[in-house]
């Protein structure tokens, strides 16, 4: 078996998650969070589109982790992001973490907005 070291460039991977928190780049962050090429920031969930729209120049798609179960984000939330040119992919937060890490390791222009499990 051949093992390859993954290079995330300047971005940080999501190392883990648990009830109410995420471990990102070796640090524990509590509550909802956005991880992007701009760094790690708290997120006001679906009422906070401004934080995500600011990323339009550096990302193509954002994975929206909706907690323990998949849920559809409000239509107004999706419309604001799509109007800014950002693709929106909702999924359960554990799946969003994994998908973000894989695409980040491929050098893709991605971000993730996560609601804790």
Describe the structure.
The chain has 117 residues and is of the alpha/beta class. The mean pLDDT is 93. The protein is built from three helices and eight strands; from the N terminus they run βββββαβαβαβ.
Strand fraction band? Answer: 25-35%
SSE class: alpha/beta
Principal-axes shape call: globular
- Sheet with the most strands, sense and barrel status: 5 strands, mixed
- The beta-strand count equals 8
- Whole-angstrom Rg: 13 Å
Order of helices and strands: EEEEEHEHEHE
Order of strands across the widest beta sheet? 5-4-8-6-7
The low-pLDDT segments are: none
Kindly report how far apart the N and C termini lie: 34 Å
Number of helices: 3
Mean pLDDT: 93
Fraction in helix: 10-25%
Secondary-structure blueprint:
Layout: E1 14-18, E2 21-24, E3 27-30, E4 33-36, E5 39-42, H1 50-53, E6 61-66, H2 75-83, E7 87-91, H3 93-105, E8 110-115
Parallel strand pairs: 6-7, 6-8
Antiparallel strand pairs: 1-2, 2-3, 4-5, 4-8
List the main descriptive attributes of the protein structure presented here.
117 residues, alpha/beta, three-stranded antiparallel beta sheet
Q: What would a concise description of this structure say?
A:
The protein is an alpha/beta fold. It is built from three helices and eight strands; from the N terminus they run βββββαβαβαβ.
